[in-house]
Amino acid sequence: MSDACALELRGLRKRFGRTEIIRGVDLAVRPGERVAVIGPNGAGKSTLFNLISGRFGASEGEILLHGQRIDGLAPHQINRLGLARSFQVSNLFNRLSVFENLRCAVLWSLGYKYAFWRLLAGAHDANERAEQLMDRLALQGRRDVLAMNLSYAEQRALEIGITIAGGAGVILLDEPTAGMSRSETARFVALIREVTVGRTLLTVEHDMGVVFGLADRIAVLVYGEVIAFDVPERVRADARVQEAYLGSVLVDAAHAAPEGR
User: Fold this and answer.
1) Cα gap 240→113, rounded to integer Å
2) Where do the domains of the chain lie?
3) Span 147-165, mean pLDDT?
4) How confident is the prediction for the chain on average, in pLDDT?
5) What topology does CATH give the domain 1-82+168-261?
């Protein structure tokens, strides 16, 4: 099945000592698909992301990116194969401007290696790519503002830009709308939808309105196991999901989903 998948997990397990956090996860995400991973606190969602992105090593199982095994590789090696992720807490160069943050993010993908003697003013392709990203992120008016002085929603938008800057085809977003107001969330979902066109998205999200407004399919993780993986309508109606996690909140949240999924 791996040839048809952008990302595939096979029998994935993760133990810390005697405690098993991820318990035999199988998951296949198709190219261009948007998948949301939901579940109660402690279900293992962040651990799952850390396994996929190489921060943790798997105890058992396989992780394949476009059919190539990536379990056991370092995070930077996985990134260069086309997978990028954001984190729950913004991870920016706070004392660099919006433009400088984005330019740093695109350098490696354009073939620039780290060299302290290089003058980046002459890196016209990197500068142009950074300008294009700012446009897509609606941050052009904040070009020279230090990252530390951006609003929270702007910082999250910038982090999305940094995540996609290298041209990765598979994007992992960890709770991208956490801490945002309802209006900020709606705008941010629209941004995510726009910048992930043509890419594969796997996102952890607690806001059910966001989940139902964004995801093509939903994976429900409970105690380290995927108990359901289907289109939103079927997940909402799944008795196992309702009993284990969501209950009637799914019905209410579906009506609160941002428009345009």
Assistant:
1) 50
2) 1-82+168-261, 93-166
3) 94
4) 88
5) Rossmann fold (3.40.50)
